[in-house]
Amino acid sequence: MEAKNTVVIFGTEAFARGEMVNLALSTGALVLERTTGNYSPRGCYLTPVLPFSAFDRLMVSWGADTPRGTSLEAEVRVFCGDKWSGWYGFGRWSPFVSRAGVHQPEADPAWMDGDVLCVPGGAVKAQVRVFLYSEDPQITCALRLLAVSVRPRDWNRQEGPALDRALRIPAYSQLNRDPAFGAAGCLPVCVAMLMNRWGEDILPEELALAMYDEEAGCGNRAFAAAAAGAYGYEAYLAWLDLAGLKAQIKAGYGVICCVRYTNDPASPEGLPWLEGADGVAPWHTLVVRGFVTDRAAGDRPAVLVNDPFSPNDAAAERCYDLEQFLACWTGACCLVHRKRKGAGNGHPERFSAVLRPVGPVGMYRFEAFGQPYPLPADFLGTPQRPAGTLAYTLAEPVAHATTAHKRFYYASVTPEGNIQLPAPVMAEGKKITVYAIDNTGSTLVAELKP
């Protein structure tokens, strides 16, 4: 379902069209070359020159296995006027390294704005190179997918044929998640919706910490797609028109769409009005899950969404007027398709732990990997830079489709590295499940049974 403005490279045949230095192809993925039993510490892949109609915005995304000790970094150059630009980077990626997209001041011919290359004067070609790194000669990363998508300068957007289809996708409110991420947590919440639709059962906080950008927080879309790719999903960024969006829904895939809106038609912010929305969102993501005809609104076309900017999970399922939605939608999307066979090695994991009582009632210390495991005093980070999540759930009388649908309570770490559960919670005598998610998205899970 590739559009003419999007190129997705995957598989042996497609990767073989590019140039490789210190790399090899293995089961359809690019890996570091191995000689005398050791992997090369660094390799580079260069795509062929990719021609496009004139464009002014470009996004690069990738899907890769990057276990601890490995990472990758994508760069792009564009052909502007009669010459190539320099190389622009998207930041080094792995869930296990400190990550930051590149933010540059406006410049000629182009500049990086986090996860987007801005080319105001336009370009007609692009070329991408990806560096693969390993700090351990016995470990390699594996690049399985590389995508380049551009926004055409003269975009003849197509509507596509009428479509009446609704997909079943779990809906979550970002306002019910870890307050450390707050209103900025829409993107990992949306990625969790699409991954959990295929049975992953991941928490939005696990994704938020795995993809966290030191400069942009949870807003880096390339890192969001890469986080889903780390679990084996075919995830990439694309500029879509309505026809492309409908094609994804028809094929059974929900789509994360970038939007900007206000719920006040007289709002002074200058944002498009979206009737039925819950607030003002200058930068926001939601999941489109279908299209219908809204008979209550005079048979007007409508779009079905899961909008995480909602007071609770149930309220996140919305029906917006299609014309209003199109005025709010930027065209930028994140696609998360089913897992690829053999992909998803080296992603952040969950580990079973035990909680040992220490001190007063409700005070516990983790025991993991066969030894006491106190959490660092700075485990949660700071309000300016969240570094972890400590949360718990209580046994509920009803079953939930996914763990993320449960009600989560958020706790703090004592100076000794323990967790203090409130006395009223302990008095209820319910089973308690505690989650400690670190800055890589790796999680300790422990249960307290009554």
Structure write-up:
The protein has 450 residues and is mainly beta. It folds into three domains: 6-152, Jelly Rolls (Sandwich); 165-339, Cysteine proteinases (Cathepsin B, Chain A, Alpha-Beta Complex), CATH 3.90.70.10; 350-448, Immunoglobulin-like, CATH 2.60.40. Helices cover 12% and strands 41% of the residues. The strands form five sheets. Strands 1, 2, 3, 4, 7, 8, 9, 10, 11, 12, 13, 14 and 15 form a 13-stranded antiparallel beta sheet that branches. Strands 16, 17, 18, 19, 20, 21 and 22 form a seven-stranded antiparallel beta sheet that branches. The chain is globular and about 70 Å long. The N and C termini lie far apart (52 Å).
Shape: globular
> Regions with pLDDT < 50 over 5+ consecutive residues?
none
Largest sheet: 13 strands, antiparallel
Distance between the termini: 52 Å
CATH fold-type name of the largest domain: Cathepsin B, Chain A
Structural class computed from helices and strand pairing: mainly beta
Which CATH architecture of the largest domain would you pick?
Alpha-Beta Complex
- What do the pLDDT scores average to? 95
Give the SSE map.
Blueprint lengths: L5 E5 L1 H4 L3 E3 L1 E4 L2 E4 L1 E2 L2 E2 L2 E5 L3 E16 L4 E11 L2 E2 L3 E6 L8 E2 L7 E4 L2 E18 L7 E11 L12 E2 L19 H12 L6 H7 L10 H10 L2 E7 L2 H9 L4 E7 L19 E14 L5 E7 L10 E5 H7 E11 L10 E3 L1 E4 L5 E6 L2 E2 L16 E6 L14 E2 L8 E2 L2 H6 L3 E6 L5 E6 L2
Parallel strand pairs: 23-31
Antiparallel strand pairs: 1-15, 2-7, 3-4, 4-15, 5-6, 7-14, 8-14, 8-15, 9-10, 9-11, 9-14, 12-13, 13-14, 16-19, 17-22, 18-19, 18-22, 19-20, 20-21, 24-25, 25-26, 25-29, 27-28, 27-30, 30-31
